[in-house]
Amino acid sequence: MWLNKINMPVGSDWLEIFVLAVLIFIILKFFKGTRGSSIFTGLIIFFVTLYILTTIINLDVLNWILSKLTLYFSLAMIIIFQPEIRRALARLGRQPWKGADSSSQKSLISALLKAANTLSEKKIGALIAVEREIGTRTIQDTGILLNASVTHELLVSIFFPRSPLHDGGVIISGNCIKSAGCLFPLSQKDQINKSIGTRHRAALGITEETDSVVLVVSEQTGAISIAYNGKLRRGLSSDKCERILTSILRNKKTQRSKMNTKDNQEKLLMLNKDEEGE
Amino acid sequence: MKKIKALLLVIWEEKYLFATCIILAFFGWQVINNNINVLKSSSPILEKNELEIKNLPVG
What we know:
By secondary structure, chain A is of the alpha+beta class. Chain A has helices spanning 12-31, 37-56, 60-80, 82-92, 102-121, 137-140, 152-159, 198-209, 238-257, 262-277, and strands spanning 126-130, 144-149, 169-173, 176-182, 213-217, 224-228, 231-233. A seven-stranded mixed sheet of chain A has the order 2-4-3-1-5-6-7, with helices on both faces. In chain A, a hairpin with a 2-residue loop joins strand 6 and strand 7. The model of chain A is unreliable at 96-100 and 253-271 (pLDDT under 50). By secondary structure, chain B is an all-alpha fold. Chain B has helices at residues 2-13, 15-42, 44-55. The model of chain B has no long low-confidence stretch (mean pLDDT 77). The A-B interface holds A 6-7, 9, 13, 16-18, 20-26, 28-29, 44, 48, 51-52, 67, 70 and B 7, 10-11, 14, 17-18, 21-22, 24-31, 33-35, 37.
């Protein structure tokens, strides 16, 4: 009887199974919605079905092959989920953000908004990433190093058509424009709306790999969007943009000093609900 | 503590997915446990150690 082959767990074995189940759950949740999730589910179903069948019908050779294949299975997982694993490791190795104080943060946000509004009125495309905890050095190196103070005039000049740096994105770190004309990685998600162009895809791409906040101005419509944590919020008004940017950037500051006020938490909850709704 | 609470909440919201995970974990545990048992029974070092233990003088 095939049931005899199953060892009934006792005592601490159940704890082991529970911990394994939680780990599988976390992994499944982490990979949900990524391009490799369907492959992952397919492979799991294939292996589990084959294992049950070979155990029930006593197919020892197939069972042996299956056990040897598990090594290649884990290797395949690393290759399939390479971008996700890279993102997870980057989050593990977060460094404290050398952020500016609230007054310079305010001036940064106001410069960003002023530039975004001007560019939006003139329908000039723009891509501005604000670096937070995870460094963007490799992306900065693809562009031209500037190390200039953030002013709205400079941002507008960078993105002005025919300017040598207008093609690509700008990276801001602290209160300084680090680099311009940078090539951002494109988003690998399959579920992205087909109407989204390369600029918005690049904005999503950098937020999938890092914790940066990206401000995008559409060249076609002049609409202002914000990408954060792999999510894009499109067609935002200036007020909403300011609220979101303040909330995201201030959140980091309060998290660092562990002084999260109830008011801020409520604001963040509202923001998260808004994001889920879209 | 907050993180554990949040995780438990997420698990409760997706209880069916978690039930599938428990089934997967059960079968995974079976495979690993069987492999460990096979390794233990076929390892010459282990066998040698067991023989040595058996041959130890009593008292």
